[in-house]
Amino acid sequence: MDTRDLKRLLSGMSLREKIGQMIQLTGMYFDEEAVLTGTVGEVKPEEWVIRYAGSVLGMDGADKIRAVQEKYMEEHPHHIPLLFMADIIHGYKTIAPIPLGQACSFHPELVHEAAEYAAAEASSEGIKATFSPMVDVSKDPRWGRIMESFGEDPFLNGVMGIAMLEGYQGYGSIGGARIAGCLKHFAGYGAVNAGKEYNDVELSRRTFMEQYMKPFRMAVYADPAMVMTAFHAVDRTPVSKNRELLEEILRGELGFGGTIISDWGAIGQLEEQQVASGQKEAACAAAEAGVDIDMMSPAYMSHLEELVEEGRILESAIDRSVWRILQMKNRLGLFEDPFAGMKRSVCLSPAAKRGALRLACESCVLVKNEGILPLDPGQKVFWAGPYIDSREFLSRWAIFGEHADVETIETVLKGRKIPVKLIPGCEILSEEEMRIWCAGDGKPVEEGIQGDRKDVDWQKQYAGVEEIREDDTVVLVLGEHEAQSGEAASRAFLDLPERQAELFDMVARRTSHIVTVMISGRPLDLRRIAERSEAILLAWRPGTMGAQAIVRLIYGEESPSGKLAAGIPWCTGQIPVSYWDMTTGHRMSEADPGNRFCSRYMDIPNTPLYPFGFGLSYTEFEITPPQMRKEGAGEEERICVSCRVKNTGDSSGAEVVQCYVETICAPVVRPAKELIRFRKVFLEPGREREIEFAIERKEFVFYGEDMEPIDGGIPLRITVGNSSYNAAGSVDFTVGGSV
Ligand code: GLC
User: Fold this and answer.
1) Is 305 in the pocket of ligand 1 (CB under 6 A)?
2) Domain termination site, one of 499, 532, 564
3) What pLDDT is attached to residue 704?
4) 264: CA distance to ligand 1 center in Å?
5) Signed CA dihedral, 409, 412, 416, 417: sign only
6) Which of 90, 127, 264 to mutate to test the pocket of ligand 1 (most atoms within 8 A of CB)?
7) Could you tell me if 367 and 436 lie in one domain?
8) Ligand 1 centre from 39 Cα, in Å?
9) 239: CA distance to ligand 1 center in Å?
10) Does residue 525 lie within any of the structural domains?
């Protein structure tokens, strides 16, 4: 629809019709089988709200969506199409690894491709918008949603957020098979205090504006259709009523012109946060702050009309919000075709599964290998653990994925005729853990009753372990249940589930030749596992093709190439720990490791167990120290950093060359170092390649003591290497000065 006609449509709408566009309802008001991703609470929409609601979340199924759309448009006075939205976080039917795993691939092109397949699959079934990518910088693995983020680094979150957004939307336009993307949760949700879900956030303005806003500043240039407001407050003002954040920074400074949607119930929640005396005041505060869509709270539906009639909210403000929503629907082509993109299902195509397999392989991170991997397929080994015959490779955020589409490791091994002895050993969770985690069907399981679960004879489960001899090799595939990560899944302990820890101990008492494959939605406390494993491969939640990826890597059909997008803490007590923590005084010196009087814990080392950016390969690489030259002058100045990377081993593989910037001295304390570029390079044995990074002057700008931007004149250091803790060399320079 052209702009003139769209404006004419808006001008002909009644106030209720306009307010309807600003309300998003869960699909259950249209289809009882819709997926619920929040609590319905006090939301009791009147008939006009259902008839005029602008968008629906959580519905799927082409036939249902088509039927609901046809009925809705027939009854709508201006026949404005519904926009069907959903949480397509890491795939629709072809499930890719969780975003944290995708980030570990350090391969944005594969992330882009997986998002394209997700968009095509969802769009073919009528879903035209997703609440993804989530770009919340996450340094605390106690927070279950770290799985949904791209990890602890601001720059990596930004790069992967752009890749995913452009995969969903196409380059700067949405249309055809494309779906609307949504940057979330604006902003800083990954810093929830103590990693506790839905908790508040305490960040200095500087850290918030520099590190936690960085991925949003980067990704807003990919033209997201939507930005979602987070639940928490920023400097004590909840985001959904934070005018400075939404109007001045997001729309003003960053130039975001799309639709701002609240998180589920976040507007109504302002009352619970005690910053609104009731739903009417909550609605007023959010509308004044510029939140365009109220997702599933009573506020807008119950009070926006009267607020306009009372003159507290101008109808022109309503028109601005509705205009943005109509433009989003228009960019999706819904006015020309309310079923845009819907066609015979394209789900689970061979190409999509190939892409998911590649991404799953490159997402896995080999953090330890004392020569035991890769295994020889002719060698008879044991495969043990609950994941060898499980399909639980998806996640709580794979809401439309089907376990039936997931092959088990057992099936893959038998399909390849690899001689193995299988010992499932135990369930993923004990009965008590099943109850705690509302596992199984996702509903709280009553005390002592495990749904349809029968009493399990745990000793019988361990049958087969007694056959393991001390020179046998055992591949143990262990890890979290799907229910143990994602939203509403914060953990105070990061240990293996109890039965699996018992199984590990039983195996470790019989042999030292253990390869541990870890399935998880977060970094876990691996210390005890690491001490008694000769190799550890972190597979995260690897998605539909997870089993194939794990078998391929274990048997060396390809080399692991993933790098940690979130470091693995030494223990839970060390959290939060990050490579970009601020520089401190009393710094621990390697020259005097026994010194008590330094910034440390006395009972553990001062470094993570495995740091950000770390990951092993089956081959070896050498990276040369960086060279630097400058180009341009003034604001156009940029520095060019180059180095060479060589495969010095005897098999092919990939290295991720990482480029970090350190501040040598500044008026304010700065992060110890910050990732500023990376490149993944695939090389055959003996081959080498030159890498060059071009970095714009403005990328080195940071806030001074009075929050004024400091641009130039500060001594800086660039290091390159293959992890945040392993530099091949460095070069000092000053932007606006000499190298
Ligand atoms: C949830 C999540 C958000 C999600 C939304 C819709 O509460 O916080 O990430 O997109 O509701 O399901």
Assistant:
1) no
2) 564
3) 96
4) 6
5) positive
6) 264
7) yes
8) 11
9) 15
10) yes
